[in-house]
Amino acid sequence: MDVQAEVLKRYSEGAEERQAELCCPIDYDAALLKLLPQEIIEKDYGCGDPSRYVREGDVVLDLGSGAGKICYMAAQLVGAEGRVIGVDMNDDMLALARKYQPEMAHQLGGDRVRFLKGYIQDLALDIDEMERHLAGQPVHTAADYSRLQDWQARQRREHPLIPDASVDLVISNCVLNLVHDGDKQQLVNEIYRVLKPGGRIAISDIICDEPVPEHLKRDSQLWSGCISGAFQEAEFLQAFVDAGFLAVTYDKWDVQPWQVVEGIEFRSATLTAVKGKGGPCLDYGHAVIYRGPYAEVRDDEGHVFPRGERMAVCERTCSLLTGGAYGEDFVGIAPAITGEPKAFCAPPGTRRPASETKGGKYTTGCGDSCCC
Ligand SMILES: C[S@@+](CC[C@H](N)C(=O)[O-])C[C@H]1O[C@@H](n2cnc3c(N)ncnc32)[C@H](O)[C@@H]1O
To answer: How many domains would you assign to the chain?
Structure first.
């Protein structure tokens, strides 16, 4: 089965006419729907609401933007300083989303949304640009194909559709499951590439509780209907951990499956995570205390935090653990006096005596401000 061709056909039909079987009931914020044209509201093929993670001023990238509903909702939340980019591979969906762009720009008081043609597993390649190139230099021979590959590599490098580290928040609504299994890890790596250090993701998608057998994967209706291409629930999280994301979490989990096929439950969930800020790991004398309720927790960088213990961390880890991505699980304490870093980084498991942080500033994990 040609996965991409099946998905293209199904969503071209979906752009033309509402496909009821692709619509999963979702509780959107009604206030954000008020401005939207009825056609955009009806041709909604999402399974969650990643718009609720958008903050004012964000540059937002929506993967598989379809008719543009989530983009137009996000555009209201980013405000005049933010912008929203929708990427989709389907011309009919892009045309539908773009049809309402002038009307929405007028309603929003600014043209903050753009819809780009691209494959979400290859966000550097501008497909409109490639089609213009192919019109002048079609591919007939293996040599032509090799020249096309060189051209693509140069385009990705010199004129990427979505540049490295250019996005604050990547969102997606019921799309990752449609990507060929062999391209799924590359897709997650691409999400990591385009995010700014400290950037966030909120991905609503269909996941399944057991691996999907081959005969279901080969069923084109089940695949294009957002079922049999679903990630298995543990693999979905792991794909993001493997790409380097931190604080990878199921923030929302539908108890009720959307569909059950041959005993396998397919349900909607929303995954959130952050891209670390990077930078050197320097021990200035910060500490964090894990509040509980578990006896201890371990993060994806290998630090272990026993409940209630004052643990030595570098400035970067302190900032990450108390910066909002971990909710209010940690209390951060800055050193009373910031001097030169003592060592490259205290080994995981090092306790920090209270005497070293006494008088330092406390952070209780409720926002972006770090403990330093
Ligand atoms: C299930 S619909 C969801 C649309 C939209 N997110 C919504 O909430 O209504 C899937 C969309 O993803 C697009 N899509 C699927 N695979 C894609 C890929 N590999 N690259 C880009 N777009 C893709 C389809 O064209 C379609 O518009």
So the answer is: 2
